[in-house]
Fold this sequence. Notes:
Layout: H1 7-15, E1 23-27, E2 40-41, E3 51-52, E4 56-59, E5 68-75, E6 89-93, E7 105-108, E8 112-115, E9 118-121, E10 133-134, E11 145-147, H2 155-163, E12 168-172, E13 177-182, E14 186-187, E15 199-200, H3 203-213, E16 219-224, H4 228-241, E17 244-248, H5 259-265, E18 269-273, E19 277-278, E20 284-287, E21 293-297, H6 301-319, E22 328-332, E23 343-352, E24 358-362, E25 379-383, E26 395-400
Parallel strand pairs: 5-6, 13-16, 13-17, 14-15, 17-21, 19-23, 22-24
Antiparallel strand pairs: 1-12, 2-11, 3-10, 4-6, 4-7, 5-9, 8-9, 18-20, 20-21, 22-26, 23-24, 23-25, 25-26
The structure holds adenosine monophosphate and magnesium ion.
The site of adenosine monophosphate (AMP) has 20 residues, from helix 3.
Amino acid sequence: MSELIPVNEAEQRIRASLPPFGTEQVSIDQAAGRVLRQAVCAERDQPPFDRVMMDGVAIALGDGSRRVFTVRGRQLAGMRGQSLDDPSGCIEVTTGAVLPAGCDCVVPIEQCRRDGERVELVAAWQPQPRQFIHPQGSDCREGDELLAPGMRLRAPELAVLAANGMDRVEVARVPAVAIVATGDELAEVDQRPLAEGQIRRSNDRALAAALRGRGFDDVLLTRVPDDLAATTQVLSGLLASHQVLVLSGGVSVGQRDFVPEALRSLGVEQVLHRIAQRPGKPMWFGIGPQQQMVFALPGNPVSALVCALRYLLPALEQAIGLPVGDAGKAVLASPAAGSPMLTCFIPVRVHHDDSGRVLATPVPVPTSGDFSGLPHTDGVVELPPSGTPAAAGTLVSLYRW
Ligand code: AMP
Ligand code: MG
């Protein structure tokens, strides 16, 4: 039997074999949540003109001693810039308007007493030079790089795209993912009654949710029986149509575990099999003839999810151009037992202490087949191999569901 591969090496081997998924142009209306694959520079100065930031009157301040002005015009938001030629006059302005030429101060409406066209400043108000004006270019200058490749397009990024005229944008292509559940014992979610020995297939739904939660929403769900010929036939078709295959089950060394053999016969090159971890030891990963990524995860539901969090999701995120980030971190709230030879992944509930530290309370499950308690957890922590339990207060890597 092959030697167990340490967790970090398994991660490195997967990261070293990522295929390029390419890019595509999408409309700004389809861009939210996607990963940007181009730089976006400022179309022009922002604000593009000296911008009035209060409703009120614009004046030429001079030495600041004048208290009474006559309204000479109106400058509303969206109007071309007007000008004020005479310091005894003022121009009515609204928020967002171009500052009229000849003006260098805005007095808010609340500080003006208006009588017809006569405006008098309230007694206590002393206007200051350039007050209530956003200067042209104070936000950014034309040509400044505002967005860089690899940024996830969230609300602030969408605002910047729109403000800079980016109606189309180049983003990472989202790979087509096929999720394949293996096992003769698997029944459909809606099958009733269930025969003795049958269980409903649940891994595929869980894996699809994990993928969709990270923006990988081109997901197909299917299943194969424990049969070498049938497995080979289905996987052959999926390799032709999908860039990523995620299998669950059939990857151990039992007499009905046909997945590695079927994949090898289809030219999928094994990159790793069996990792020094618990749960998730049987995991297999390989690269297909057209650089398809094949993640063959163990069938036990906790194992399948742990391997998805630790290997599948980070690899796909890196492949679409997101920066390779460190895992989240948390501090153990209570001791957790690991293993001298294996990296252990322990489900945890996460909360914050009074100083904002992320605390993880272990909620161990009895076995890797027992997943009913997972809904009350937030993810898993990673405990490196150790002969002694990890003490409360230990800093650990945290992978959230
Ligand atoms: P295997 O890795 O195929 O040996 O399966 C290990 C355990 O996981 C067995 O008890 C299977 O019944 C169970 N299992 C396999 N696939 C699924 C699935 N899609 N949903 C739920 N349990 C599964
Ligand atoms: Mg099986």
